[in-house]
Structures are given as structure tokens and as C-alpha cells.
Amino acid sequence: MADDAAKPGGRVRVGTWNVQFAKLSLEKGPFVAKVLAAPDCDILCVTEVGAADILPKCGNMIDAGTDWGYSIPKASPGRRKVLLWSKRPWTPVFDPLQARLPGGRLVAGVTETPIGKITVVGVCIPWRDAHVNSGRRDRVAWQDHLNWLAGFARTSFASGGLRTIVLGDFNQRIPRKYTPSGVHDELERTLERFEVATEGDFLEIPAPLIEVDHSNVWMGALREPPGKKGGALIDHIAHTGDLTLHQPQPKADGVRCVGIYPKALGATKLSDHSGVWGDFKV
User: Fold this and answer.
1) Is the peptide bond before 39 cis (omega within 30 degrees of 0)?
2) Gap between the Cα atoms of 44 and 64, Å rounded
3) Interatomic CA distance for residues 245 and 156, integer angstroms
4) CA dihedral sign, ordered 98, 103, 106, 111
5) What is the DSSP letter of 148?
6) 1-36 as b/e: b if 16+ CB within 10 A
7) Within a 10 A sphere around the Cβ of 38, how many other Cβ atoms?
8) Which of 178, 141, 140, 157 lies closest to 105, judged by CA?
9) How many CB atoms lie within 10 A of CB 226?
10) Per-residue pLDDT tens digits for 18-37
11) Could you report the per-residue pLDDT of 187-197, keeping only the tens digit for each?
């Protein structure tokens, strides 16, 4: 995995967003593409991708394949559950134990960044009702989610190696909301060697950061403990302790500022998820 010398003083911008199978041929596709490109991320993990044409044009991609237990529509052969994009080329990384996970939901690689080489693990952890009321219909609630966590915990990716980021659709809010406590405990155990930069609730009024088609891509603040108002993410960025979420200005204790990919631009719905991005340094 990442084993070269770190490059202090630099920053790498990393983002993740579940785009609800967006592609350019859909009405929302061009808007999703503009929002994804707006922060000029070095690395993106995009989940539930309709087609790779929504990604920035100049870059390099690896994906988790097509086998995640649901059939791909003939009209959308480019659908992927997880896709990693980087400005620089990827060296794919495989762990033999990842073959035991519910398929098509993990892809990993090493890429060069302004802070040196980092290992990036893109994931889409099964949602609570995966294969319960659709697909194979042979599961109970949270079964595939727990199976995935147990399998991932046995891989080398969970060991928290040098400069490693795990990001994507975790399908849980952090801290716990709504999820059964035992299920959330398993997520915490799986990520015990990582810090989750995206835990907490949004502050009530996100501050505009970047304008896209006269609408704002937010710079939101997350706080811990969570507040009584505001939203919470299920798309997350977790990182090893040798990386730090960069803050442009000092913040109050427990408050972190991150970029937010919004669910909608004006009247145009983009996704059923809010995405997130941030700058990391060594």
C-alpha cells in the first residue's frame, strides 16, 4: 500500500457522493456533473453511478465491477455501485478476502497526490433492506450490511495502514441515528483504526462556497455532539490518524467544516443523498 515518503505542506481534496444512478442522458445528469467538478477534487468516490460520463473528463478511473446481486438494465450498461476517480493514475489493490464480501461494493487503489501516495478504498455498504424486498429476497433487514462489515473487518484494508482513506456510502449516520445499536456497534468496530471526518450533524445554516448555475454548493459545518437541528450524512470519509482534515480557519471545539454536495439545485433533484468533500493533510 502507500509506502513512499509523505509530502508535508500539501493538501489533497477528496470527495464522495451517491448520485442515485445519474448519467448525462438523464435530465439531472449535467447538473450532477457540474456539481461533482466544482470543488476540483483530486480524488472522488462516486457510488450508484449511472455512467462514468458524469465524472470530470481528465482523470483515471477504477470500479468495483458489475456483480452486486442486482441485474443491470440493458439501457444502462455503465452502471456501477462504486467507482474511484483520480487526477493521477491508479495502481489497483486487491485483498483475497474481499472476494467473500457481497460483490461489486469495494474497489481499492493507490494514487499519487499532493501529499504523497495514499491508499483509497471506495465502498458502498449494503443498505438495511438489501435483498429483503427486492433482488433475491432471501435476506432479513441488515443481514447483508452486517455480512459486509464482518468481511471487510478481516481484510487488510481495515488494518489502518499508512495514509489510507475509506470512503463512500456507509448507509449509517455517525453518531448513531435510527440504526439498531448492535448494527452501529459493528460499524464502529470495523472502523476502529480510522477517524471519521464526516461524523456529526450539519449546523443549521450551511455557508455558500461555490456557485454552480446560480445555486450554491455548500460549505457546511459538522459538530459533535450533534445538535437538535440539521441533517446528518450517510456518505462518509474515514481516514487513518496520519492524515488530518484541514480547516481553513480555526473552529470551535467539535466543529469541522466540509464541502457538501447538495441533494438538489433549485428545483432539480440531484440525488437522495448529500455528498461530502474535504481537504486532508499530513
Assistant:
1) no
2) 14
3) 23
4) positive
5) H
6) bbeeebbeeebbbbbbbbbbbbbeebebbbbbbbbb
7) 19
8) 157
9) 18
10) 999 999 999 999 999 998 99
11) 999 999 999 99
User: 166-192: per-residue pLDDT in tens?
Assistant: 999 999 999 898 999 999 999 999 999
Angle among Cα 68, 69, 74 to the nearest 5 degrees reads 85
Alpha helices per DSSP H over 102-254: 143-153, 181-190
The H-or-E segment that residue 37 falls in is helix 29-37
Sign for the CA dihedral angle at 137, 139, 145, 151 comes to: negative
- Cβ–Cβ < 8 Å for 202, 220: yes
What cell numbers appear for 208 in the block? Answer: 455558500
CA distance 201 to 198: 9
Tell me if 46 sits within 8 A of 19, measured CB to CB: yes
3-state secondary structure 232-258: ECCEEEEECCCCEECCCCCCCCCEEEE
C-alpha grid cell, residue 71: 441485474
**Beta strand extents in 57-159 (DSSP E only):** 60-63, 80-86, 90-93, 106-113, 116-124
